[in-house]
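Table S2 (continued). Query chain:
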Amino acid sequence: LAKAGIGWNSRDPGGDAVYAKIEEVVFRILNEFIDDLSLFAELLEEFTAFYEQQQKREETVDKRTRETEEGKARAELARAMVQQTLNRRLTGRQLPLVVVKLLQDAWRNVLYIHCLKDGTESEPWKQAVKVVDAVIWSVQPQPGADWQTRLKDVAPKLSNSLKKGLAAVNYDSLTTETLLRELMQVHMSM
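Corresponding output:
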């Protein structure tokens, strides 16, 4: 009882239950004890079982709270990493609006999921970043016919990668089709 009383905190969710159980034990001793010492053994066993159960509950709540906080921290770190990756590739470049929308609004979700789930050293993350680089490359014409030929070869594969990646993160299919159609129009105008 003393150990439970020392650890008791009225602000704890289970604190009222501990206080009530301590009070129950004390009242039972006051009301039931005459000369049978077995009452103390019974109450000790009962209180010990109750207290251990309370401790397990508290540990579970603490663990869940810690996991939630760690999850929030990982999510925030992933968001920052995605934004940093996109900023490095987009800042200072004159890109068509569809490319910025595609990467900042849509593809960021793919990057975020891969960063959060697999980490930035994983192959899925690296592939998702390669798609970003390929989209940017595809709208920055290079002199010579070689670039045009390569674009004609890469554009369908790029479109397929974008479609698959966005579908994997449940991005709106109608918006995806619109963005891909606009990107194709940009490619055709080059």
